Amino acid sequence: MRSLLHPNVPIVSSSHPPQLRRKSTTSSHKVPVLFPNSDNGLRHFHRPRERVRCWPKEQRGETLGGRFEESVTDAVERFMSLFPLTSSYTSTTSWVAGPMPPCSPTSDRDKILCGLDDIERQIDAGEFVWRMDREDVHMNIEAALTDMIGEPAKKLHTARSRNDQVVTDLRLWCRDTIDKILVRIRKLQVSLVKVGIKNEGLIIPGYTHLQRAQPILLQHHLLAYVEQLERDITRLSNCKERMNFCPLGACALAGTGLPIDRFMTSEALGFTAPMRNSIDAVSDRDFVLELLSANSIIAMHLSRLGEEWVLWASEEFGFLTPSDSVSTGSSIMPQKKNPDPMELVRGKSGRVIGSLVTVLVLCKGLPLAYNRDLQEDKEPLFDSVKTILGVLEVLAEFAQNITFNRAKIQKALPAGHLDATTLADYLVNKGVPFRTAHDIVGRSVALCVSKACQLSELSLDELRSASPVFEADVYEYLGFENAIDKFSSYGSTGSARVAEQMHFWVSKLQIT
């Protein structure tokens, strides 16, 4: 028998060997399902973006009867249903491995496996009808199996609850999703490093408070984002490590008295171990919050990059020009060429951050253990992941389609006295205390402002009017190119140091 998450993982009794029998498959299956699974050798089912086929009201029956004497109203049914959400997402699901009762006859087990195979075929062919009154995927499949093979199917839910099934599914999906995000981040890192390689030696103004501050190498600037993305990778990897514990077998909240082997199912699904506390297992959504938090930080990083490129593409800056393939126009102004993808990168960051806030607020008032509120973690999670994957993809594409305008950047560099700090360093090297040097250079800049000239254009006598320490070698520190060469500390924007950083990332990212 298979679980509600992996149709190719048999459900075994304690009399069977600890390993699980698996069916091999190389095909991709399309299924309308709720939650995706991981890529650990078990079969995946991909649900197409299509409307869910549901039975009309007169054909609806009871799935969770016994306790209830009447059906829920149409409004309640629509309000609680997950199908409108899940029909919008392409995802995967599986039937998680779980044990049959020890006395289960082999014939029942075979009937269940064959029945699940047939249901899989129906779903793959788009023939399976999803019934709204059966609430979710799990109950739809169990009820359909019961219609198909009768009493043996009623053993399918042995030692399991939708509470632990859903959260197991969700952990598997998040685990798989993190791998996809990591791939996209790496691609963006590679794109940024390649832009740096293409523009080796290009000096641009560096900014603080959006005011010109010091000259920097473009490569150095781009690598700052590569470093941020590397921390994003670390955060996601740590998140994946912490979430990789199996809730399956916790049942509703208290576990079960049936002889199940949680360690076996945990290993079969690629988890590190079963979760120690069954109450925590079904109620925990920390892993969702961590993923949403990591996505929010990624979105913030990418929004900053998008904002800079929007500014740099403007006429006021003119530092870069995006190609036509990543630009849009105006419906009324024929001359316009807008970097709209970067504006959307900036805009969508709020959406991702909002998803984190939504789930934080969702969880903050929930008593232990499971509460139906937790159904509402899916939509913000799915949307956050979809958005982050899209933003990472378009940024990598945009980076490959921009040109930096060297002539305009070169023309803009002299403004702002970017070599002032380097001039202060010159005085410090001559033995002048830094605060005194700061004052001397400040007065020299004031002189330049009054004369409408650059520091390098001041005569030696004019410089000495601010301090007698200045000598003829001072001009080796003035001008943005000389200033770049004077930076030497580890991690700085000096040419030699940036070359070291570029070499590191080219090697790490295996760029050829």
From TrEMBL:
Q: In which pathway does it act?
A: Amino-acid biosynthesis; L-arginine biosynthesis; L-arginine from L-ornithine and carbamoyl phosphate: step 3/3
Lyase recorded as keyword = yes
Q: Which residues form a coiled coil?
A: none
Name the HAMAP family on file: Arg_succ_lyase (MF_00006)
UniProt-annotated stretches for the region Disordered: 1-33
- The Fumarate lyase N-terminal domain sits at 107-354
Reactions catalysed according to its record: 2-(N(omega)-L-arginino)succinate = fumarate + L-arginine
Protein name in the entry: argininosuccinate lyase
Q: Which PROSITE patterns match?
A: FUMARATE_LYASES
Instruction: Check the record and name the InterPro entries matching this protein.
Output: Arg_succ_lyase_C, Argininosuccinate_lyase, Fumarase/histidase_N, Fumarate_lyase_CS, Fumarate_lyase_fam, Fumarate_lyase_N, L-Aspartase-like
Gene Ontology BP terms: L-arginine biosynthetic process via ornithine
One Pfam family for this entry, by name? ASL_C2
Cellular component terms per the entry's GO annotation: cytosol
